[in-house]
Amino acid sequence: MVSDTVLVGLLTFLGTGLATAAGVWQWQRAHAREARADFRAERVKALGEVWEALSDLEETQRTSVTRRGQAAGTGELTRVNLLLLRRSPFLRPDEQEWAQAFAHHVTVIDTLIRAEAEGGRPAAQWWITSAQQPASSGIAAVAAQQLRSLRVKLGERYAAVVRGDSD
Questions:
Q1: Buried b (16+ CB within 10 A) or exposed e, 118-148
Q2: Interatomic CA distance for residues 126 and 116, integer angstroms
Q3: Fewer CB within 10 Å: C terminus or N terminus of the chain?
Q4: With bands split at pLDDT 50, 70 and 90, how would you rate the model's confidence at 129?
């Protein structure tokens, strides 16, 4: 009689332990799924902010080329760099590298165009209008070509993350 009671108690204890373990396991899975969803949402937001900041930087630089004097967009460049630092946990290393190279190329092009303008040459219309620049025109053309390539890479990655095709 005692052995039946002990056996029933032991089986009840084991059943309760297994049910508790299964519940904890399901809770952990649900918690991990929520954490992944939160991280993905922050990643989409971070990529959007970086895309907007880089677009603002390029727009500021392009529109300021026609004006003489100090290069415009230094505040935008600082904002891009600080944004990359702040949002780095949500960006992959290649995305950070692309964004930094993008900002660098915009700055290089702006500096070269301003140097030409200070030398008495007119501002480069190809940069203001986004016209295709022949590769033979030097450093600025190479930087512009790399800038276009980086814009495509970042745009494709941002679109993929928004669609859910990429983590």
A1: eeeeebbebbeeeeebeeeeeebbebbebbe
A2: 14
A3: N
A4: low
Exposure b/e, 44-79, CB count within 10 A at least 16 = b = bebbebbbebbeebbebbbebbeeeeebbbeebbee
Say what the pLDDT of residue 66 is: 64
3-state secondary structure of 37: helix
Of the candidates 53, 75, 61, the one whose C-alpha atom is nearest the C-alpha of residue 105 is: 61
Chain centroid to Cα 121, Å, comes to 36
Conformation bin of residue 121: beta by default, left when phi > 0, alpha when psi is -120 to 50: beta
Question: Residue 152: is its pLDDT beyond 60?
Answer: yes
In this predicted structure, the answer to whether residue 75 has a pLDDT above a threshold of 60 is yes
| Count of other CB atoms within 10 angstroms of residue 164 | 9
Please provide the average confidence, as pLDDT, over all residues in the chain.
81
How many CB atoms are closer than 10 A to CB 151? 17
Calpha distance 41→148 (Å, rounded): 27
